Each structure stands twice: as C-alpha cells, then as structure tokens.
Amino acid sequence: MNIQTLINRIKSADAHAQRFLKMFEIRQEGGKFLFIAPGPDYREWLETLVRNFLEEELRGLIEVRERKQERAGGELLNPRYRLENFIVGEGNRLAYRVVLEALERPGELYNPVFVYGSVGTGKTHLLQAVGNEARKRGLRVIYTSAGDFASEMVSYLREGRINEFREKYKRVDMLLIDDVQFLAGKERTQIEFFNIFNTLYLRESQVILASDRHPRELEDVSDRLISRFEGGVLVEIELDEKTKLRIIKEKLKENDIPPREEYVELLMGARNVREIEGKVKLIKLKAPQPRERKRKGTLEKILEFVALYYALSPEELLSDKRTRRVSEAKQIAMYLCRKLSSASLIEIARFFRKKDHTTVIHAIRKVEERKKKDRKFGHLVSFLEKQANAKL
Ligand code: ADP
Ligand code: MG
Fold first, then answer.
1. CA 239 to CA 256: how far, in whole Å?
2. What distance in angstroms lies between residue 376's CA and the mean position of ligand 2's atoms?
3. For atom 19 of ligand 1, which residue has the closest CA?
4. Which amino acid residue places its CA nearest to atom 14 of ligand 1?
5. Would you say the CB of residue 125 lies under 6 angstroms from ligand 1?
6. What is the DSSP letter of 239?
7. Which of 45, 112, 286, 303 could form a disulfide with 232, with the two C-beta atoms 3.0–4.6 Å apart?
8. 3-state secondary structure of 45
9. What is the residue with the minimal CA distance to atom 11 of ligand 1?
C-alpha cells in the first residue's frame, strides 16, 4: 500500500479531508502510517473516519496520534498557563504585546523575541501561554528550557542520534526556550542551538527566549549567540506595584479568600508573583473562610427548620413582621443559632439582617427568661433544639 492511495481513500470518504489532512504530519514508521494531528479535534476527526469508513485492512495500517503526545523537548506545555489568565499591566505590557505579535505573525516581525526579567515575573507563564495558543492554531511548537535542551542534546549525542535531535528542532514553527541563562558554559549545546537557531531564523520560524538577565549579562555564552539574541527584540518584564495589586486581588478571588486589607498588605510584601502565590496558599490554609461558609450553612438550616415548625417561610422569618408568631419564631431561631452553631453574635445579627448584635442578645435573653417561667415553652425549646441539632 502506498501513502498516496491511502490518502485518496481517506479523501473519498470525507469531503473535508483534503483541507484537514494538510494539518497532519504524515510519516511511515515500522510498516505503519503515522498521522500526527495538530490537536485533539483533528485526532478525533481522523479516528472517527478511519473507524467508520475504512476497510479493516487499511485501518490496521493507520495510527493516529496527537502532536503533544510526541516527545516535545524536555517539558510539556502546561494548560494552566493561558493568555487569558495572564494579568497585563505596566511592567509586563510590552513583553505581552511583543509576544502576542509573534504569535499572530510568527517569524515575520520580531524574531527572535528575548524576554528578560527577574524570577517570578511571569516569563514562563507567558512563553507557555503563547505555546498553548500556537499549538491550538495548528503550529508545531516545542517548549523547553535551556537546561533540558542541553541534557536532551547530550543523550541524543550519546546514542549517536544527533541528527535526529537536529531534525526534530528544525521542523518546528515555533521554538520556545526558557531559562536561557542555563546555556552558560555548555559549549556543545550552544553550538547545536546556534545552528538550529540559524535554520529556524532563515525559515522564518518564530523563536522566543526567556532569561533572568539581559543577553549581555549572560555568562559563558558565546558572543555570536549573544549577538543573535540582541539582533531581535529585547523586552524587559517586571512586576510594578499596580499590577502586583491586581494580581493579588485576582489570586485571592481565585482562592475564595475575601480581599481583606490585612491580606493585601501582607501580600504586597512579596517580591514576585511566585511568592504571592505561595503566601496565598498559606492564607487559604489559615483563613476562617471555609468555616464561615459552613457556619452560614448551619444558620440557614436552623432558620429553615424553625420556619417550618412555625409554618412560616424563611423569608418571613427574616422580615420585619412583628406578629407574635413571627417574633417568637425569630427569637427561638436566634437562640438556636447561638446554641447550635459556632457563629458569633455579629454573624448571627448579620444573618438576621439586624443592624447590630444587641438584638440577638435581647432575643436570647428573652428566650432564656421565658424558659424559666413557662414550662411548656421550655419543653418546646428543648424539643426544637434536639430536632434541629439532629438535622445539622
Ligand atoms: P518566571 O518564569 O518569570 O520565574 P513564572 O511565569 O513561573 O515566573 O510565574 C510564577 C507564577 O506567577 C506562575 O504561577 C504564574 O502563573 C504567575 N504569574 C506571573 N505573572 C503573572 C501575571 N501577570 N498574571 C497572572 N499570573 C502570573
Ligand atoms: Mg520561569
């Protein structure tokens, strides 16, 4: 079976195949035809077609894979890093724009892009976000760090497969190299990288690099590489105070933590976004938030229970109505909330839409006094307490 016959068979099964197949990389490997899809949609399309429209014997010849399942450098792209969740402000706006432009017109305008800035300023996030987006659009992307690139190169070299290594990197539409400072002192890696870079550059494939320092401050990196880096667009990325505040608020929100002054103040002391994230995790561990929520659930249950007993709606119990039935139910509900939950008087007052907690104190006192005087009422309260408690 030759590949063209196979492709023709696929085309005759689906009118879109002509267009779709262009997005695939097709190779022959061990007697099989490997169809590498640029993403999950294309993979599913071809798998379905193969399953439903091709004869058994042809089916056996085809293997469909997704590009990201192929070994792509040392690290894979993390889907958590997206352009939409990258907060843009003064300190990172330029880097964001340049990188976005490179995504829109890969290899055309800004090549290479060199992003530099201190730790935790979002370089990795930005690179991976662009990588994720580019991959979605069907570009062949490799993301790796200079350190992983170096060890990968060494292992290919040892296995006598250095040509495969070169081919793999020269095939891409977009190469993203993180932590370029780790090229330091690795001469052979620098040579390989230089050659790959030149090929990609001439082919107008996009190269984006990130480093913790300006190219001129890279140690033990060859001059010719540095001049290549400087020949593209250099953008610094920093964390300014205003953006920091926005990131803090966003991270608190993501973690369901109320943006209290004390938290914000504490977090503004962090030196970078990574530190902010670490501290937010700590706050989350210590924050009373989940308990508060549980308490609120408890208060709601007590309210519903008492309302049901008095044949009122929960809303009526929270209203300003002052009929005897409503007043009594309200007092008992507040009393039970105090006894059965860990909510503070203020929290209970707020829950019952009262301006301050003296109302709650007053209600509790009323119930206690009446319990002493009125035995029937006392029994009723104990009964309700037991029943409500069983429902919590
Ligand atoms: P770097 O690579 O510069 O050291 P990272 O990209 O690893 O920094 O960022 C550290 C963490 O902070 C990551 O979890 C990242 O998602 C987050 N982060 C950094 N900058 C931003 C930003 N502008 N908006 C949202 N999250 C950010
Ligand atoms: Mg990084």
1. 24
2. 70
3. 122
4. 274
5. yes
6. -
7. 112
8. helix
9. 274
Cβ of 228 less than 6 Å from ligand 1: no
Amino acid of residue 367: V
Which candidate, 326, 319, 332, places its Cα nearest to that of 360? Answer: 332
**Amino acid occupying residue 50:** V
Ordered per-residue pLDDT tens for the chain, 392 residues: 788 888 998 988 888 888 888 888 888 877 889 898 887 778 888 988 888 888 888 888 898 887 754 444 445 788 889 999 999 999 999 999 999 999 999 999 899 999 999 999 999 999 999 999 999 888 999 999 999 999 999 999 999 999 999 999 999 999 999 999 999 999 999 999 999 999 999 999 999 999 999 999 999 999 999 999 999 999 999 999 999 999 999 999 988 888 999 999 999 999 999 999 999 988 887 766 555 566 778 899 999 999 999 999 999 999 988 899 999 999 999 999 999 988 888 889 999 999 888 899 999 999 999 999 999 999 999 999 998 988 88
- Bridge partners of 66, per DSSP, are 37
Tell me which residues have their CB within 5 A of the ion that is ligand 2.
Answer: 123-124
Ligand 1 near 301 CB (within 6 A)? no
State the distance from the centre of ligand 2 to the C-alpha of 14, rounded, in angstroms: 44
